[in-house]
UniProtKB/TrEMBL annotation:
It is an enzyme of class 1 (oxidoreductase). This is proline dehydrogenase. The lineage of its organism: Bacteria, Bacillati, Actinomycetota, Actinomycetes, Kitasatosporales. InterPro entries: FAD-linked_oxidoreductase-like, PRODH_bac_arc, Proline_DH_dom, Proline_oxidase. Keywords: FAD, Flavoprotein, Nucleotide-binding, Oxidoreductase, Proline metabolism. Residues 45-298 form the Proline dehydrogenase domain. Its EC number is 1.5.5.2. Pathway: Amino-acid degradation; L-proline degradation into L-glutamate; L-glutamate from L-proline: step 1/2. Its cofactor is FAD.
Length: 307
């Protein structure tokens, strides 16, 4: 019940100010956000890769309001890629980007987001890595898939994300599986109306399994983004039945969540990628993590009260 309320709050400027100023917030945010600047995240990338894990890096931010901010987002990723190059870490760290941070919702936002994300994809390719386009709320997805298709003409390794809770997703999965895309499947983290998305958790899980099967049986590279032990086990079984080798799909989890399970899957020989978010504009990302698990909210409230 609390999830939708927290997700609504994740879009409120008033709540943003309140949460950001609360004592104790920083300590809880640090569980999910790897730091504020590139130099905070570098040792974490080193540590994760030394433990046999792969990484995808997200400079947090979304829903910007000016074109200048969209350029700043592009430049933040270019700085990150430059740093990974210097350190020789490019091949094990890919990037995840939110197109809203690249200007997608501004005037002529589709073209602006495409022109901002392209240099990031080019720079990533130059250091031997790639970019995945995150999925945001359902109103942004036609534009996201069109940008994904456009980028794939020159950079076929560019990935995208699909969300099991949306009615449209099985069809999207079929198209992407047939055209050989890298696709991350997730349950979905936004507050979506019943007109476009399943609302019942069990139904979302069933849809997730159907979509995983489409991806595993297809021509692309499935990326299973979930912490749900049941779905991970089913993913392994579907991969086995589809005759996929261990390097023909991967698991992905978020930094700070179920780290032992991340280590266990990597130790079993699975490709296990940790989605590692950093930056100063952490509010939206942080609130979605609270919405996913009520215990996180309780921990957050306690840490405020004990300060
Ligand atoms: P759940 O049923 O929510 O969780 C299963 C178990 O995992 C829980 O019981 C709990 O033990 C643990 N867990 C899950 N979430 C948390 C948490 N926040 N804190 C502590 N424990 C937790 N969503 C999008 O809409 N677009 C994206 O682009 C996107 N990218 C993602 C990338 C990755 C790598 C991952 C893992 C998730 C991403 N998500 C994205 C979020 C996703 O949609 C879900 O909201 C999130 O993964 C929770 O669903 P779950 O599959 O882990 O299952």
């Amino acid at each position: 019940m609390l999830g939708p309320v927290i997700l609504a709050a994740s879009r409120s400027d008033k709540m943003r100010r309140l949460v950001s100023a609360a004592p104790g917030t920083k300590q809880v945010v640090a569980r999910f956000i790897a730091g504020e600047i590139v130099d905070d995240v570098v040792p974490i990338v080193r540590d994760l890769t030394a433990r046999g894990l792969e990484v995808t890096l997200d400079v947090v931010g979304e829903d910007i309001t000016t074109v200048e901010q969209s350029y700043a987002a592009r430049d933040a990723y270019l700085e990150l890629i430059g740093r990974l190059k210097e350190l020789g870490l490019g091949e094990r760290a890919e990037m995840s980007v939110k197109l809203s941070m690249f200007g997608q919702s501004l005037e002529d936002g589709h073209e602006l987001a495409l022109s901002n994300v392209r240099p990031v994809v080019v720079a990533a390719a130059e250091i031997g890595t790639t970019v995945t386009l995150d999925a945001e709320d359902h109103t942004t997805l036609d534009s996201m898939f069109a940008i994904h298709e456009e980028l794939r003409k020159d950079f076929p390794q560019t990935g995208c994300v699909i969300q099991a809770y949306l009615f449209r997703t099985e069809e999207d999965a079929r198209r992407l599986a047939a055209n050989g895309s890298r696709v991350r499947i997730v349950k979905g983290a936004y507050k979506e109306p019943a007109s476009v998305a399943l609302q019942d958790k069990a139904e979302i899980d069933k849809a997730y399994v159907r979509i995983m099967k489409i991806l595993m049986d297809g021509e692309g590279y499935p990326m299973i983004g979930s912490h749900d032990p049941r779905l991970i086990a089913i993913g392994q079984e579907l991969a086995r039945r589809a005759g996929r080798k261990l390097d023909e799909y991967e698991f992905q989890m978020l930094y700070g969540i179920r780290s032992e399970e991340q280590n266990r899957l990597a130790a079993e020989g699975h490709r296990m990628r940790v989605y590692t978010a950093y930056g100063t504009d952490w509010y939206g990302y942080f609130m979605r993590r609270l919405a996913e698990k009520p215990a996180n909210l309780l921990f957050f409230v306690r840490s405020i009260l004990t300060k």
